[in-house]
Structure formats: structure tokens, C-alpha cells
Amino acid sequence: MKALLVAVLGGALAIATPAPGHADEIRLTREQARVIAQRAYRARNFPLARDMAMILLDVDPKDPTALVILAASQPMLGKPEIGSRAGREAWNSTRSRVLRHEAAFFTARAEMMQENYGRAKFWLRRAYHIADTPAQRAASARGFQQLRALSPWQTALSFSVAPTNNLNGGSQSRLLEIDDFFAIGTLSGAAMALSGTVAVAEASASYRLSRSANHETALSFRAYHDFNRLSAEARAQAPGTNGSEFNFALAEVGLTHRIAPKGRPLPDTMRLRAGRTWHGGTGLERYAGLELARTFRFPGNLQAQTSLSGTQRWSSRGAASSTDKRLG
């Protein structure tokens, strides 16, 4: 043990070799062993950091500092699966925010090295949310950027609930008017603004099919659904009306292809999409669209984009189809 410690510490941490004739046994407190392991890791002496962590764990298998050092050093020695396991154990062994941030961060890195991108994202979120300093949050954010570059999958989920005073897009006035001036009748309660609660659920996912230095192609999916519930006041205003009559849903698939035009007069983004919408639980329309776009970059990190898009819509309720065109 003395030969290993002296040889490695003497080279990496400039600790003097004991003089000949000294005892072969080196006695360290736990805190001294932790400091040596931490310094060895910072000096990129990963074998020594691992060995010291293992010695500490022989004494206390739940030592969170030793587990964090093991989670950090084992992936650098080609064993990320051991690192991720140690990181999970470290998280469960401590309530220290500092140690938990380190455990989550190194576990995420170990999972990323194993191409377990979903698990890596989970641990990076933990690291970000428990971070105490801007530097810790910045490190987690950089990890997310690396993960986005590596993972072919990108997903997003959102859910919200909020009150509203007009969930049906109804009129604020009871009078039916022409040009906001000539009153020609009165509106029913259901045609006026109805208050209530709206819950919105949305999910999106994309999968990168291919990528090179000059192109990227990705398949995407998006789903949206809102759920409407009338307030007691709205139910009294419009008897027999149910909030679900105003529910809206959408499902869409898309294909996006990006290229590097290299000065040629070509669009750098081409996007195809197709989808269907529902209103009140019944089909509303089907649609398909094409978008061409080009981004221009200028000095000073400025950029501008121009686009041309068109959408063809087919009504599910017997109405005539329509075509939308936009130049932006």
C-alpha cells in the first residue's frame, strides 16, 4: 500500500516519499483519505481516486463522499455502469445538497457514457434543481446541451390548469350587433362568454433519422388536448351545455430536413407536416403542409429568417377544402 501511495501521490500531488527505514504502514483518518481521493480525482489520477474510495467504503459502505468519488472516477476508467450505481447509492445515502448535486451530475455523466439518454436527462434535471450556485446550474445546463447533441430523441411534456372567463370564445355582450352599432337581437347564454377551468396537456417528440456535417433529418410528433369544465355560474347561464363541447385536440406528424447551403440560393430548412384536429370530441379537419425557410446570419450574432409555407385543409364536416399560403 505504501509503495502505491507514495509513487502516485509523489508524482501527481508532490507529496514527498518517506525516508528509508520508516514503517510500511500508512495511517490516515477518514477525512485525510477523502481529501487524498478528491485531490487525486482533480489531478486526473483516477485509479488512485477509485482505490481510496474503495478503502473508505470498506470501512463504511454508505460513505456518501466515497460513493461520489467512485461515481466520478469509475466511468473515467471504462466502467460507467459501476459509476452510475455508485452515484445512485450516494444520492440515497445523504441529504447534503452539495453531495446530492455531485452525485446526480456524475450519475448523469455515467448514464450518458452508456447511451442511456433518458436516465441521463433525469439525473441532470435532479442536478440542476438541487444546485446551489450559478456555476453548478451552468454545469448542468452544459450537460443538457451535450445530451441534446448526442441523443437522437428529444421529448417534451407539459400540463397546465388555469381558470378562464371565456373558455368558448363567446361574446362579452348579450346584444347581437352589426358593425358593433346596430343591435338586431340577443344572443343565447351559450353564445356568450362562459367562465370555467381549462386543463391543457401537450406532448412532443422528435427522432433524428440521420445527421452529418452538412445535413440533419428528423421525424417529429406532436399531440395537444385541452379539457374544459364550466363554472357553476356558466352552467346556470347556459343550461344543457357541457364544457367538453369546447374541447380541442390535435395530432401531427412531421419530417424536417436541414442542410448547409454553403452560399447557394437554397432553403436551409424543409418541413413537411400532416395532422388532424378534433373539436368537442368529433373530427374537425385534416391538413397537410410544406414549409421552406432560409436563415441569414450577420456579424454581431444577428440573424434573420425568411420562409414560404402552404397548408391544404380538408374539413371533416362536409365543408369545402381550403389552402393557406404564407410568406414570412
Concise overview:
Helices cover about 35% and strands about 35% of the residues. With about 325 residues, the protein is α+β, with helices and mostly antiparallel strands.
Number of helices: 9
Strand content: 25-35%
- CATH H-level superfamily title of the domain at 2-150: Tetratricopeptide repeat domain
Distance between the termini: 71 Å
> What is the CATH architecture assignment of the domain at 2-150?
Alpha Horseshoe
Label the structural class: alpha+beta
Low-confidence spans: pLDDT under 50, at least 5 residues? 1-19
Mean pLDDT: 85
C-alpha Rg (nearest Å): 31 Å
Which shape, going by the Cα principal axes?
extended
Annotation, overall tally of beta strands = 10
CATH class of the domain at 2-150: Mainly Alpha
> If strands are numbered along the chain, what order do they take across the biggest sheet?
1-4-5-6-7-8-9-10
The name CATH uses for the topology of the domain at 2-150 is: Serine Threonine Protein Phosphatase 5, Tetratricopeptide repeat
Q: SSE order in H/E notation?
A: HHHHHHHHEEEEEHEEEEE
Largest sheet: 8 strands, antiparallel
Classify the helix fraction into a percent range: 25-40%
